[in-house]
Amino acid sequence: MLAVPDMGLQGLYIGSSPERSPVPSPPGSPRTQESCGIAPLTPSQSPKPEARAPQHAPFSVVVAIDFGTTSSGYAFSFASDPEAIHMMRKWEGGDPGVAHQKTPTCLLLTPEGAFHSFGYTARDYYHDLDPEEARDWLYFEKFKMKIHSATDLTLKTQLEAVNGKKMPALEVFAHALRFFKEHALQELREQCPSLPEKDTVRWVLTVPAIWKQPAKQFMREAAYLAGLVSREDAEQLLIALEPEAASVYCRKLRLHQLLDLSSRAPGSGRLGERRSIDSSFRQAREQLRRSRHSRTFLVESGIGELWAEMQAGDRYVVADCGGGTVDLTVHQLEQPHGTLKELYKASGGPYGAVGVDLAFEQLLGRIFGEDFITTFKRQRPAAWVDLTIAFEARKRTAGPHRAGALNISLPFSFIDFYRKQRGHNVETALRRSSVNFVKWSSQGMLRMSCEAMNELFQPTVSGIIQHIEALLARPEVQGVKLLFLVGGFAESAVLQHAVQAALGARGLRVVVPHDVGLTILKGAVLFGQAPGVVRVRRSPLTYGVGVLNRFVAGRHPPEKLLVRDGRRWCTDVFERFVAAEQSVALGEEVRRSYCPARPGQRRVLINLYCCAAEDARFITDPGVRKCGALSLELEPSDGASPGRREIRAAMQFGDTEIKVTAVDVSTNRSVRAAIDFLSH
């Protein structure tokens, strides 16, 4: 069956045979720019995908940046000793009693928009500004979620600072990444003065697995702008999926580095003292040591003891509970090399720790009035940040069985501003409020019952549990033995208890790494050293292009009929490259060959379409949308017949990003090829 790209072009060249005639799309069909006509040389049926081993450039060190919603950090390891992970130096500033191996995702820019500081330094400096002066400074926090929630993300998307001023999101992210780049390179120079800077660092950026292709491309564009790598050396930057990174790290852990949440106080239904998973697996480990084959597997693959006890084909879930999202992935352990296979496409949603912060803000709105809270945030932005810091400190102490109430400090600016705006004090507001579980303490603080604090967690925690339960109900996930709870929010005793209480009855063992907040960061370093560890992934969506096929009466709708030069064509046919939930191996390629429509044509653009369904027939079907464009930049043809010039494109859907390469068959030269998901 002949397939012609449906691009609405006159004079589209598709060969000299009478069976292959120039065929334009009808009026109203999806179109590309008129300078970008192509004609396919391959039939509509996809050739069998070919697996190609990924090629990676040499490097001396891997630097991973875990760019989180609430906190961020970096770590690195040298190629000479890849599993010796070096955490970043302790950050300046911070909160008493909190480990500072990460820093808050807070960026401060001057009133002119120049970079001032990041992390604790930015937060503390902004907090200390005079209220009137603070109005002019641009302070951004928890801005990563804006990329996830943006429905029409482009390179021109704007972010709003806490004072209401806006700035291009790309510049905000680039400022942050540039800070990490300079911080990391300075530390590398101090530790290894002889280390050359050029082409020696492989950078890794973490993103949620549920992020779509535009968001991943956005992070890559921000990295280019920040100077992490150049476009010419794009392979020096890897995008790591956060739950995958956690999975890669967990497979290296020893038993004493894991906590088992399944231990419960008898008859109480309450979590007892958390015990090491080591005791639970001691008997299995002794059996393992008696097995020469298993012992060899443990040594040769370099995986941890827990994984050596698992058999080939064993399945487990990683629940990455971060500041902005919950990210779920299901992996199957493959022997003999300990590689990982994804069993179901990444899932999750916006159920991160910031949901608890939003619930607290809504609570304040019920007490003091939503209009007041909105006004206070805009006119006293630094004081609002101060209030959120105070709440964060108390949020960390919340637990399912805490007995005492929690006091939350209100900034003087809040108290004074409320009195001036409302004509009475905050104590009066609390007495008049219908919220009876928050009182005014004699120390001049909000006094919240532990039950009230736990209630703030419930919408977010319930969303996480519902997502996990829905995932476990999938037929592809049957047989799961373990659930790894990772991410910064997984440090919460409230979340740990709720997950164990909901899933323990299923016989699922819920396990938490000791350094749960650093699991993704350390795993991203290991992923950068060996990107091939995740051998098979599932495509989250169906991708393809629109083409013209021969019209078949009875099979094709009459409204799709196009007659041209006596030939009958069906328009808008969705030619599929890869289907949603299809297993795709790393390096596996989908190939298509095209030739330019006109002599001297220098650029080819092909619209890409995607949908969640596996069986879409037309690009006009409900749920099918244009999601990007494949671009091929052509060099002069050197006198060869332009009508027969063949460009062969190879697309890979099994990596963390969709990739494309192309070659001019007549010259065997590479053609610059790219897929753009951000330009609409």
From TrEMBL:
Alphabetized UniProt keyword annotations: Stress response
Coiled coil region boundaries: none
Region of interest: Disordered: 1-54
UniProt keyword Nuclease, yes or no: no
Source domain of life: Eukaryota
Keyword Mitochondrion: no
Alphabetized InterPro entries for the sequence: ATPase_NBD
Annotated protein name in UniProt: Heat shock 70 kDa protein 12B
Species per Swiss-Prot/TrEMBL record: Callorhinus ursinus
